[in-house]
């Protein structure tokens, strides 16, 4: 199906549609003029769109006009003059109303009692050519939700190809028990959704009292929760990022789920000799034999440079399109630095909004974004360190889980008579082994070997004293084959041998060693993580938690972070980066435009801060950078709600300046303040509503099943 836009405006969109089976036809979406003095504009719009068109044509939308008095209930009397506008236009354009199935009205003011008003404003109109092209098509009025309009659906009969119903597969008794348990434990949300929607349809046809409208809102809340659970259910079943690809609960994701189930089912397999097996035990045996031969063979598979380059090109192209990396590729391979730098480059381009070959201004050094959020960064990963840490993680699993299959295979091949920390890399070692060994120094920085039975803890090589630097003794090694080698050799009668210690170590070392308890039972020596490491980064004066933990939308938090870090496109900052522009503030025309000036010290910004509920006098902070100013007020204000309003007003000032500088529209300062305060209130209320959803289910059950 091809769609070509003919024309569009604020009140219409007109398109030509070319379908494979029915040929070409035309659709016009209409939004009628809502102003009472401009209702004639809807009729003129229809007449202008018709323009003697004799092909198949259908119009649909919110016309904001009615045709007859029965299409209105409540409120002031029906206006026949307004209805005549639509009647005349329909006759002039040779159109016919397609009618409807369902509730009589498509709009309501959502008020109860005598204040309730309902009208039929939404409809589809088609000419005779379109009706002959699509005979049997009809319009349905669907169930109303939170909007004051209910959705209307045009069903084109010829285009519907309903799949044949397949016979439902009979469940085994265990599956039936599991399904019954699931319905009892978590509820049958699909049937409950149908029940809720049926109840709303029933309430729509009753007198719209305050009680009925309240019940409808309660059921709406429950439907939101059920639809969220339904989305999560199909998302988990399909394993797709489906909300980025399409609408909720479409056929695509159901089909994807069935495809995955069929793809994951192995029905038969051939072994290396070509014998075919379909028995489950034989299939398992073939898999085990194949992988045992792969891991214990003498051959080593080296990565082909051409293949590796092809894989990298594919990953980088995938990264450009979706910026969604499968980090499993990093687990068992040491990537070349140019590849890791290329991935970081793509991340930088994505973050700063660069597309294609265009270049964007980077206002903050990328290495500063590696810092965690609480220290002023964004927690981005350094790809080189990330690759090494994942390889180190694999090495740690091999070191601490010696009974695993991969640990046993690698030990038998590379270090049969030693430990992973003493293993060596040979010229014929596999690329995977060399990658893991390349990250072994990561383990030495944070691992120690607590003393168990002491039989495998080497005195001079292993990190075993928890209170010494690097957990190692710093006395000269006596490992000459004559003295003690393992920690167990330093014990006598279930205690430390002080005579042996005095010959080998300094008094400081002896004191720390004697603090280690000698175990009273045979306990294996196992490696452990170092839990005493501290960060070497200096803490920031500003408490970043007031930004990231605030009750504001993510865009407000992100802008506040950029402003405090000085990463806003102020003229003074742009000049420092080599741009030849006028540094004077375009609003006041007096001072240079820095971040502090544009958001705080500009005369209009000063007035906004003073008139706001915060009552900030910004003038006494002149001479400070914006980040320093925020740090100073952070010392005196710790209330989270205070910071919620501060960040919202900061965002409002930024939008207000941009509106004036780029659109030459000036907004009242009090509107900026009121919008910021209301935005905070709405967001906080939404967060409270999320926590109160637990009680909604019980209310809906009382409405749906009042006799229980």
Automatic annotation (TrEMBL):
One Pfam family of this chain: zf-RVT
Superkingdom assignment: Eukaryota
Keyword entries, A-Z: Membrane, Transmembrane, Transmembrane helix
Record field: transmembrane: 642-660
Reverse transcriptase zinc-binding domain segment(s): 536-609
First and last residue of the signal peptide: none
SUPFAM superfamilies xref list: DNase I-like
Presence of keyword Membrane: yes
Name the UniProt record assigns to this protein: Reverse transcriptase zinc-binding domain-containing protein
Organism: Chenopodium quinoa (Quinoa)
């Amino acid at each position: 199906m091809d769609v070509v836009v003919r024309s569009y405006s604020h009140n219409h969109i007109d398109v030509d549609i070319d379908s494979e089976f029915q040929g070409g036809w035309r659709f016009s979406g209409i939004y009628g003029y809502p102003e009472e003095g401009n209702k004639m504009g809807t009729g003129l719009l229809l007449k202008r769109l018709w323009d003697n068109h004799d092909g198949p044509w259908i119009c649909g939308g919110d016309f904001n006009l009615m045709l007859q008095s029965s299409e209105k209930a409540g409120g002031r009397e029906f206006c026949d003059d307004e209805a005549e506008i639509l009647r005349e236009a329909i006759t002039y354009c040779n159109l016919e109303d397609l009618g409807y199935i369902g509730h009589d009205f498509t709009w309501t003011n959502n008020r109860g009692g005598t204040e309730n008003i309902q009208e039929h404003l939404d409809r589809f109109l088609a000419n005779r050519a379109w009706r002959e092209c699509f005979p049997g098509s009809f319009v349905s009025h669907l169930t109303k939700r939170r909007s004051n309009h209910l959705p209307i659906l045009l069903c084109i009969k010829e285009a519907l190809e309903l799949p044949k119903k397949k016979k439902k597969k009979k469940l085994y008794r265990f599956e039936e028990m599991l399904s019954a348990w699931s319905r009892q434990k978590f509820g049958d949300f699909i049937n409950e959704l149908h029940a809720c929607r049926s109840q709303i349809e029933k309430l729509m046809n009753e007198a719209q009292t305050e009680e009925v409208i309240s019940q409808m809102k309660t059921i709406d809340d429950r439907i939101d929760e059920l639809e969220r659970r339904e989305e999560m259910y199909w998302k988990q079943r399909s394993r797709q990022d489906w909300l980025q690809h399409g609408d909720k609960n479409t056929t695509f994701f159901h089909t994807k789920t069935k495809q995955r189930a069929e793809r994951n089912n192995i029905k038969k397999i051939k072994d290396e000799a070509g014998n075919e097996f379909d028995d489950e035990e034989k299939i398992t045996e073939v898999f085990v034999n194949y992988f045992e031969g792969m891991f214990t063979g003498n051959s080593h598979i080296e990565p082909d440079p051409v293949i590796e380059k092809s894989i990298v090109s594919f990953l980088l192209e995938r990264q450009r399109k979706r910026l969604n990396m499968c980090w499993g590729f990093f687990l068992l391979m040491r990537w070349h630095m140019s590849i890791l730098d290329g991935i970081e480059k793509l991340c930088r381009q994505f973050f700063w909004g660069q597309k294609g070959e265009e270049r964007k201004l980077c206002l903050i050094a990328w290495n500063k974004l590696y810092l965690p959020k609480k220290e002023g960064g964004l927690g981005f990963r350094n790809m080189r360190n990330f690759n090494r840490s994942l390889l180190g993680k694999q090495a740690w699993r091999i070191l601490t889980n010696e009974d695993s299959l991969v640990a046993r295979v690698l030990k038998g091949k590379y270090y049969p008579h030693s430990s992973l920390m003493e293993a060596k890399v040979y010229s014929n070692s596999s690329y995977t082994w060399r990658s893991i060994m390349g990250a072994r120094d990561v383990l030495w920085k944070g691992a120690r070997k607590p003393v168990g039975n002491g039989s495998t803890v080497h005195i001079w090589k292993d990190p075993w004293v928890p209170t010494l630097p690097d957990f190692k003794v710093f006395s000269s090694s006596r490992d000459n084959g004559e003295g003690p080698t393992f920690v167990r050799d330093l014990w006598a009668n279930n205690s430390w041998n002080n005579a042996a210690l005095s010959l080998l170590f300094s008094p400081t070392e002896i004191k720390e060693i004697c603090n280690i308890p000698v175990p009273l039972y045979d306990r294996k020596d196992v490696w452990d993580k170092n839990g005493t490491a501290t960060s070497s980064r200096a803490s920031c004066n500003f408490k970043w938690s007031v930004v990231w933990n605030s009750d504001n939308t993510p865009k407000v938090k992100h802008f506040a972070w950029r402003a405090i870090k000085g990463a806003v496109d102020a003229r003074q900052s742009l000049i420092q980066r080599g741009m030849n522009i006028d540094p004077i503030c375009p609003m006041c025309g007096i001072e240079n435009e820095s971040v502090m000036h544009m958001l705080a010290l500009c005369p209009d910004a000063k007035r906004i801060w003073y008139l706001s509920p915060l009552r900030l006098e910004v003038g006494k902070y002149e001479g400070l950078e914006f980040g320093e100013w925020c740090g100073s007020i952070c010392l005196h204000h710790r209330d989270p709600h205070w910071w919620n309003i501060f960040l919202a007003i900061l965002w409002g000032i930024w939008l207000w300046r941009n509106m004036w500088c780029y659109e030459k529209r000036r907004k009242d300062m009090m509107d900026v303040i009121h919008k910021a305060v209301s935005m905070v209130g709405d967001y906080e209320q939404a967060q409270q509503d999320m926590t109160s959803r637990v009680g909604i289910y019980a209310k809906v059950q009382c409405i749906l099943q009042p006799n229980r």
